[in-house]
Design goal:
Elements: H1 3-26, E1 28-34, H2 41-50, E2 53-59, H3 62-71, E3 78-79, H4 83-91, H5 111-117, E4 127-140, H6 141-148, H7 157-160, H8 162-168, E5 173-175, H9 179-189, H10 199-212, E6 218-219, H11 224-229, E7 235-239, H12 240-253, E8 259-262, E9 268-276, H13 284-294, H14 297-307, H15 322-325, H16 334-339, E10 340-341, H17 348-363
Parallel strand pairs: 1-2, 1-3, 5-6, 5-7, 9-10
Antiparallel strand pairs: 4-7, 4-8, 4-9
Helix pairs in contact: 9-10, 10-17
Bound molecules: pentane-1,5-diamine.
């Protein structure tokens, strides 16, 4: 070997080692998930185990996530839309099919949940269930008792009946800033199909929501957790696990705040949040490793134990706290399941009506 050739091969060997080293350090996955939705030690453990750094951002609205996904180039490798949004995003070409050969832990998933999520993602080709839960009523037991003379909340009437909600105005009412969660609840309360696309029926939901609008302090999809826990509000239409997290925070604060959650008897929405990989993700291998890690029974059980939502992983149930697994408001029993309905994605025309309606409701005009 000539001197020059020797130098060249030494240089390329050095470059190769250097690039490999840089590559190993560089492994990253950009995750965009709902706020208050994970025990952060899970992220640290994932990085320890795989060497993959996690950049973890949060949102509290399907609409925000959807805007980013439809614009493209979000920079995210794993996102978690709810099923009804996922379905139309799949249609729009936003996601790539999962490589199931990289997801051996899929065998831990729960067929009962997969059958339901297949409604949004036929064959579950694009997504894995993260958590699922309901839309219901979170409330401050003592304050509601003082204002209404009862702390038995078993009906949407406490919220949709203006006379009742007026009594809770001063102690504070928050509502999810989420048309696809609240409008179906209004339709259901009115005895109509929560999936109605009839403009007349949606107008009826608008009418009833405008009647209670003066008694609503805020539309927001995550602040109600602390607001309930601190005793700043007495009622929130919110997501099950978030209300249970409020209950835990209130217990920890030991200020005497007691929080209840009701799945109203008229019916409540059951939703499924699904992990998926955008078509333009830059770290596809890392995204699959993340998904596979989240399907480890101990890992996803740890998440459920912390966020107080049920997950779609059957094998994880042996690691879930008994009190959670046996709480029908988290893991519904047959009687609770009877009361739950799912919602379908809105077609573009209905979506325009819903968006317009929602603006009117939130602005109160
Ligand atoms: C997480 C709430 C997610 C439920 N805090 C709505 N999909």
């Amino acid at each position: 070997m000539t001197r020059k050739a020797l130098w060249l091969s030494a240089t390329s060997a050095f470059l190769a080692v250097f690039t490999l080293g840089a590559h190993a350090e560089d492994r990253v996955v950009n995750v965009f998930n709902w706020s208050d939705y994970i025990d952060s030690s899970i992220i640290d453990d994932f990085t320890k185990e795989t060497g993959i750094k996690v950049v973890y951002d949060t949102f509290d609205s399907n609409e925000i996530l959807e805007t980013k996904l439809l614009a493209g180039g979000s920079g995210y490798d794993v996102v978690v839309p709810s099923g009804n949004f996922l379905a139309r995003q799949i249609q729009a070409g936003v996601f790539q099919k999962l490589d199931k050969s990289k997801l051996p832990n899929i065998s831990n998933m729960w067929d009962t949940v997969m059958e339901r999520t297949a409604k949004y993602d036929p064959g579950n080709e694009y997504s894995i269930n993260y958590m699922w839960g309901t839309v219901g009523i979170g409330y401050n037991i003592k304050k509601v008792q003082a204002a209404l003379g009862t702390d038995k909340i078993d009906s949407w009437d406490v919220f949709f009946n203006p006379e009742s909600l007026a009594k809770l105005k001063d102690c504070g009412v928050y509502v999810l800033d989420s048309p696809a969660d609240i409008i179906p609840a209004a339709l259901k309360y009115l005895g109509l199909d929560p999936n109605s696309t009839s403009p007349d029926e949606i107008a009826k939901a608008e009418e009833i929501l405008l009647k209670v609008r003066p008694y609503i302090r805020k539309f927001h999809s995550s602040e109600y957790i602390n607001a309930l826990a601190n005793g700043d509000i007495c009622l929130a239409v919110g997501w099950s696990g978030d209300v249970f997290q409020a209950r835990n925070r209130a217990d920890e604060a030991k200020q005497g705040v007691e929080i209840g959650y009701s799945v109203p008897k008229e019916g409540a929405q059951m939703w499924f949040d699904q992990m998926a990989i955008p078509a333009d993700a830059q770290h596809v291998a890392e995204a699959h490793e993340f998904l596979n890690y989240m399907m480890k029974p101990e890992v996803i059980a740890k998440s459920s134990n912390y966020v107080l939502y049920a997950n779609g992983n059957k094998a994880s149930q042996q690691f879930i706290d008994k009190a959670i697994l046996e709480d029908p408001a988290i893991y519904p029993d047959a009687a609770t399941l009877q009361k739950l309905y799912t919602v379908s994605p809105y077609d573009p025309k209905t979506q325009r009506i819903i968006t317009r309606t929602w603006t009117k409701i939130v602005t109160g005009q």
